[in-house]
Fold this protein.
Amino acid sequence: MLLLFIKMLPLVLMTLAGYVLNKRQVIDVAFNRQLSLVMLNVFYPCLIISSIVRSFTWASLLQNWMMPAGAVFILVTGWLVGRVTLPLLRRHTEGTRRCYHFICLMNNYSFLPMLVAASLWGEMAVALVIFSGLGSELCVWTLGVKALTGQKLDRRFLRNLASVPMLALAGSIVILALRSLLAAHGLLPAEGSVVQAFLGTVLDTCRLAGGATIPASALICGARIAMLHPNRILSPLMAGTCLLRLVVIPAVCVAGLLALPMPAEVRRVLILIAVQPAAMASVTLAEAFNGDAEFSAAAILATHVLCLITIPLWLAAVLGGG
């Protein structure tokens, strides 16, 4: 538990900064929304491009399909559980219902599991976490957008999928395919050439801008937490949300992952991802899509506090010493 808390400390400190800045009236609701839109349209797409293009090749996409497929299984399971239980929230506002459904779908599938995987299993496990994010991103910008907007799977919904992050994801895959094709024909820019230097600079720029994603998300979340009324946290709805996000959904996912044939190192990383708390980006996306950002902030706070207990218990029960 202590190790997990230490690994979460960067998130805690950045969230605390957002909390303090709101209390000092440096960050208000309007600024939070504007920062959310900047993150959604600039920082996050750059992070997607940088992480995918730098970390993967076309061959690795094809060879390790089980990681993104496993991530899709985890998030789709959460989406289905949220959809089945959504009628229980009929007395709540539409914005709260949509954010509840989104939180059931989307957990902290990247930053926190990367930190834990690095300390437990080393660099290869971190690479697997990053690779699984490909499937997670696909789910977030399809089922996730549907959950937050409440739209049907029609032409209007498909048009909304042409978001900057989704375009960045598609563009990254195209870049990997083109790079593989050029390499096969010996047409890649020579090492040290102007073209190679330019492309490297573009990727460095994406990495620099993408590095602001997690701090910005934490600031947005911290500012929203500062605006919370205690009743948003100490409520039956929040208790039920935490139960689903930290116990029920992980239990269904873990049962499925244990039943499917896969390498042990892949299974343990996917199990780690499956037991994570609500994603920090839930507040950012709630702000951007006019959802109940306060509910999302309360869910993030509650699940991140409780996961200090639940994650070690899950890992000990399922993985033991492995």
